[in-house]
Write a structure and sequence with these properties.
By secondary structure, this protein is an alpha/beta fold. It has a single domain (15-146), classed as Alpha-Beta Barrel (TIM Barrel). Helix content is 36%, strand content 11%. It has a three-stranded parallel β-sheet with strand order 1-2-3, with helices on one face.
């Protein structure tokens, strides 16, 4: 995580690109409030970096698995993890939107991961990152609908 803040060439680029997989919570099903609190130290560092470089920040990837403890190690891709937790994924999506989308220095981001194959279509038994056919998809769709310019 610290490499983002030590990258020497940000000023040579148009955007600061960040994979937004920061540890935010130790809870099994973190609340939106808890997740927003977890974002505070990271958000301040990211905002400071944007200010220092005069560059907008773009989340090159952001996502959360629909599993327990989704915000503890959000980069986790361990296929042995079992169980499904749609509320944790939805809360994490809502928190990231509420924390970042209104900031002038924030340029947006790319949701990870949307499979186009039917065998990877998400749904109520899927604990992977995809929001497809899950409650978090509605959160994403509604947020983009409400905040388009």
């Amino acid at each position: 995580m610290g490499r983002i803040f030590r990258t020497p060439f940000w000023k040579q680029l148009d955007f600061i690109g960040i994979d937004a997989y920061f540890p935010l919570s130790e809870s099994k099903t973190p609340t939106v409030t808890e997740l927003k609190e977890g974002w505070k130290p990271w958000k301040q560092k990211i905002a400071d970096l944007a200010l220092q470089t005069s560059k907008p920040v773009l989340f090159t990837e952001y996502g959360y698995r629909s599993m327990d403890y989704t915000a503890k190690k959000p980069w986790l891709v361990d296929r042995t993890e079992e169980g499904v937790n749609m509320e944790g994924q939805s809360n994490a999506k809502r928190a990231i939107f509420e924390e970042f989308w209104g900031e002038d220095w924030f340029a947006g981001g790319f949701v990870w991961k949307w499979f186009i194959q039917h065998d990877r279509s998400g749904g109520d038994k899927d604990n992977r990152f995809t929001p497809r056919n899950k409650p978090s998809r509605t959160i994403i769709a509604n947020y983009y609908k409400l905040h388009k310019d």
